[in-house]
Amino acid sequence: MLIQFQVGKTQLQKRRSLTGFTLIEIVIVIVVLSLVAATLLTVMGAISQNVILPFMTQIATGLAEEQFERVIGLRFSQVTDEGPAAFAFPFTDYSYEITVSPVPANLFNDPSMTRYKQVEIEVSHALVGHVNVYTVVTNH
Question: What sign has the CA pseudo-torsion 103, 114, 120, 59?
Answer without folding.
Answer: negative
